Structures are given as structure tokens and as C-alpha cells.
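Q: What would this chain look like folded?
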Amino acid sequence: MVRLFIPEGEGQHALTHRFADPYPTSRKHIFTPFMNVMGGAGITAFLAIVGRSRPGSFLKSTAYLSAATTPYLVLDAYGRREVNRAIFKLDNVEPKPAKLWEKTKGWTVDDMFLGGGILGICLALNSRAFPAVGGWKRILGAVTLGCAVGGYVVGEAFIVPQPDMITVMYGSSQLRDAQYARLENDDKAQQALSRFGKLAFSHHTSLLRKLSTDLFQSVPQAGTSVPAGGAAPALATDLNSVFLQQGTDADISIGLGFRKGELDGPDIDRGYRAYKDSLSTRDKSELEDRLERLKEMLKEKSLDSQYLWFYLVFKERKFYKMQTEDREKELFRRQLQLLDSMAIESSLRVAVLEYYIADVIKRLDQTEQDNRSMSQNALAAKISASEKITPHQMLNFCPDAITDRVREIWSGQKRITGELEQITNMHKDLYFEPGSLEETGLEKCRESYKNMKLNTEATERLLAEFEDLVRAADSGRLNDSKLAGV
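A: My prediction, written as C-alpha cells:
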């Protein structure tokens, strides 16, 4: 019951966090023997196809591959140590010395790895076990085979399920990449590296490595912002960002987005005036077409905005009658928070559309006026108040666009919830020093997961309400719905 190859500074830094038992300190010494065995099997199969296979070819091939990869593993470990020391120096961490092994309280993958290697040695000492192979090739080949079967096959199949192993090691690589990125941006720290350390750092941050990492990370990951969607970084919202993005005193920003093409028009560049036109070349018909399109859009968005306000008032009336602070009230509160954010966004959208309409009226007026003067219409080009709807119209209004928006938000929340669940599961078996930045970040991630689960459930209930209203409107019985008593 041991752990092998404990690195310097284990548990003192995010770069060398300690995995909980039974995980190994690194998967390299577990996975490499297995790859050598598979390579030996491949070479043996090829020799058999071309008619050159001999007894013992498999063990010899495995031994040669192990002899070639073992120096690489040693140099890789030494190089990582040099790079790690530079990062420790950046954070003023005095690392504890490395250890070849340490005792544990339970069985580990390293136990299976070590046991398989010992069994391989025992078999190699028996000359009748591998009669066609002799010398160092028999010993090294048998040890490699034993380590592969013990560590990779038995250890990852029975001690730790392989998907969990891959997930945890992937999380470790993400944390390591974040720390290497810090060093990559600090020229002074890089200069302090030894020549071998610089070579190792260059290897670990090479284009080839980045491409292979990107390939591994290209599995579709959940993650969109709730209001507008869009891809989040791969795990990208992962624990690294939680560690690095602790609370900041940033200004509050309330934004909104329009769908692609909604705001297109003459002399408009990404929603803003480009001022590349001239009065002589300005196309009046294009402006008039844009004006009609904007007015139609404003009418639609204005009705949605007023309905959201109306529905928010209706829901608030019910909310403030709830006396008990329980889970149901918390879910209701989150529905109101969502409705409030949607109402604010909708009001901003109406205001922006009113500005665009005023701008088109101003530009149309400019084409009809002398260049030396400007009419009162251009100076005061402001659209009149948006079309109002009565309470009776509210009861017959079909909130299909609002329902689509709530459904879009709900889908985004589901994706984020799934991503946060994946992140928390990925890091659940990692051990962090109590009170460390990593432990704080993981706790925040877990709390975010709990909150997002509640948000998703609350939005799902709100979506069901709006879908009922849409169905009632389509069937002509909206007046009989629960809103009729408002």
C-alpha cells in the first residue's frame, strides 16, 4: 500500500496538488508500459504477416521499446522538476523534497503496478517461463508486461474505473497548463531556468503539444452564457477560471444583443453608424424600407416588453403572499429574478429600436433639407411613445416570442448545469491544502452548481407556465386562464 514517485512540493501548489488515494501521482508511469506492450504486440503481428516472426519476438520487442522509453520518462520527470521550480519561485513556495515512495492507508493503483512488476521479475527468473528470450531482454520485457497488466489493466479496471482516472488526470493537465501559461508570459522567470529546464519548457509548450491538447479538448463541452449563448472555453469554464477569477470590484454592466442581421441597414456597421455615406448618394428608398422594418420590430418588442412587465406584476403579487421561506419560495424567487432580467433587457431593446427609428427619420429629413440648415424634425427626431396595450389585450396576448426566449435561457442553463456537474465530478477526488486558493475555487464551483440546478428548475417551471399560455392563446381560451383574475 504505497504511492510511487512523489514530486517536489506535492500538495503545496496547484501545479503539484496531491491526488486522493488510490490515484497515482502521474499516469505516465502507468500508461507507458501498457503502450510498450501494445507496441510489442503490433511489431510481433507485423513480423508474423511478413513471415519473420520468431519465438520470443513479442517479449524482445517489448523490452526494446521499454529500453527506448525509460530514458525519456526520466528526462521528462527531470525537466518537469526544473520547470516546476521556476513556477514555485514565482509564488515564493519552498517545495518539500521529492520521494521515491510513501505509505498509504489503502490499496492504490501503484500497488498493482508494483505487484505486476515483481511478478514479472519472478517469472523472468524462471528460465522455463520464457525459454526463447534471455538476458536483460527477458527481465525487462517481463517486468514491462507485469507492470502493464498490474497497473493499467488491474489497477484501472478494479481499483479506479478508467473514465474516472482519465477525468482526474485531464483536470490535472488543465491546472498544469494554466501554470505553464503564467511562466510563458514571464520572460524574467524563463531566463532563470537552466539550459535543460528551458529545453523541457519549450517541449511542454511546443506547437505539437498544443495541437495534441486541442485535439483532446475538442470533445464538445457544455457551456454558454445564459442570456445570449455562445461557446464558453473548454472546461473551459473549468476550475482554472474559478481559481483565477475570485471576486473583483468590477463595474456593473447590463447589456443586450440583437440577432445577426436584425440591425443591418445603410451606413450601419455592427449596429453603429459608420458615417461613410453622403447626402448626394444617400438612397431614400433604402432608408424608408429600414424605417418600416424597424417600426414593425419595435411594435413586436414593445408588446413583449409590456407583457413581461404585466406578468412580473402578476407573479410578484403571488410571491409577497408567500409567508414561509422554503424551497418553493426560493424557486419562485428565482423565477422573478429571471423575469426581472428579461424585462430590463426588453426595455433596453425597445429604447435602442426607438433610437434607430429616430436616426432614420433624421437621415430622411437631411436628404430633403438644404445643407446649410436643419429642420426641427431632424433636431427633435424622436419616435412617439410605443404602442400601448390595455389589460384586456394583455389577456388575449400570445407570448410566443417570450416563451421562445425563456426556452433558450432554460437550454443554456441546462448546458451550464451539466458542465458544472462535470467540473465538480472531475475534481472531487483531488486533494487541496485547507484554505488554499484551489480549495476555495472548488467550493465556489460546487456552490455555483447548486445554484444553477435551482435556476434550471425554476426556469423550467416558468417555461411550462408560458407554454400553457401559448397553448391557451392558440385555442382561443386565454381569457379563461389563471391570468384572467389579475
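The longest strand covers residues 2-6.
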